[in-house]
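Figure 3 (text version): structure tokens given as input.
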């Protein structure tokens, strides 16, 4: 069995870059990434996620790129899901910590530099500090982030499939649009489509009808003629997520909404023209916002965020960017631009793109213009 995205060579390079002797993964997403064990909340049986507080899984990556897995004693299917050959089982949090300590000693890490996640539970990090006072425990989040930013072909294929499923859910919702339909009914259509199309579930079902709260649909909001309806959906297929949004309207589209969408599409296209390996994300964002100011007034959100096992692994460009390096080949970015239009809520566009050697490849396929019903 081959890793999905984990790359031994890249792991070795990154541990050397960050001057680490080892790296410990404790969050379900990074344990999954480094081992393949189904620790995610959307696994066919998410028991490893549900019982994580009682039976935590760990993976230890040493500076030779090898991975050791520590997992719940009753989980008997490691060989079916994981490429990791070196693993042991434990039956309790206390037993897990004991074995973790023993393995760190076996690997000669008692007084070495070890990267840990910021989200490592406190009882685990305190145990390490107490048992290994001579070790240097440092923030390892950026190492995991850099590992995951560059996607393998298999990861890209999974994101592509996830995107197709999310788009199918959006299309089914748009085809069902009519005066009087509620957000609850639309959410049910989205959920049933995503499951029917073979996804494990949905990552997010963001939706606003007119100026309703897009982050809290499902309160009985009714579609009225002239309302702009924004569908922002993400499916999960084999652990990997998608992020696509489209706007639709029943009847006549409001002029200000149409104009906003035209501008958002132009801004997104500007970003795509400049999105290529080696590009400086800060310069890209500044150029895109300057271009937007030539088109319209008011605030515009322009964001390019990495997508993979999480919807927003990191903001590569935008006002809240958390990544300072250049754009690299085989990153997968969701590029979005949207405005808050008075009386209509959020109006905008977002699609997923793979960075290629010469530019970018669109993974989504829906028409970008407002859908009229």
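Below: residues designed for each position.
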């Amino acid at each position: 069995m081959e890793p999905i995205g984990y790359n031994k060579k890249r792991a070795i390079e990154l541990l050397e870059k960050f001057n680490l002797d080892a790296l410990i993964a404790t969050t379900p997403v990074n344990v999954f990434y480094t081992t393949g064990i189904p620790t995610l909340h959307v696994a066919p049986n998410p028991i490893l996620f549900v019982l994580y507080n009682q039976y935590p899984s760990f993976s230890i990556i040493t500076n030779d790129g090898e991975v050791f897995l520590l997992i719940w004693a009753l989980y008997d299917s490691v060989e079916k899901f994981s490429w990791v050959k070196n693993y042991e089982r434990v039956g309790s949090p206390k037993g897990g910590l004991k074995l973790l300590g023993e393995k760190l000693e076996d690997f000669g890490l008692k007084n070495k530099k070890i990267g840990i996640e910021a989200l490592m539970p406190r009882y685990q990090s305190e145990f390490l500090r107490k048992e290994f006072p001579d070790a240097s425990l440092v923030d390892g989040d950026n190492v995991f982030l850099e590992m995951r930013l560059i996607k393998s072909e298999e990861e890209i294929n999974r994101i592509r499939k996830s995107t197709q499923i999310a788009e199918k859910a959006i299309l089914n919702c748009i085809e069902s649009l009519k005066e009087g339909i509620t957000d609850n009914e639309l959410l049910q259509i989205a959920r049933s489509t995503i499951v029917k199309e073979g996804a494990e579930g949905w990552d997010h079902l963001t939706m606003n009808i007119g100026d309703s709260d897009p982050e809290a649909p499902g309160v009985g909001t009714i579609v009225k003629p002239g309302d702009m309806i924004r569908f922002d959906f993400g499916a999960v297929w084999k652990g990997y997520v998608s992020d696509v949004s489209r706007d639709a309207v029943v009847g006549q589209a409001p002029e200000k909404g149409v104009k906003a969408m035209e501008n958002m599409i132009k801004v997104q296209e500007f970003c795509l023209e400049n999105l290529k390996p080696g590009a400086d994300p800060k310069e890209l964002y500044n150029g895109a916002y300057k271009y937007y100011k030539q088109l319209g007034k008011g605030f515009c959100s322009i964001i390019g965020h990495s997508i993979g096992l999480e919807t927003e692994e990191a903001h590569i460009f935008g006002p809240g960017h958390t990544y300072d390096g250049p754009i690299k080949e085989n990153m997968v970015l969701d590029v979005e631009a949207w405005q808050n239009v008075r009386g209509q809520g959020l109006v905008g566009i977002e699609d997923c793109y793979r960075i290629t050697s010469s530019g970018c490849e669109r993974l989504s396929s829906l028409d970008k213009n407002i859908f009229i019903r």
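The first strand starts at residue 22 and ends at 25.
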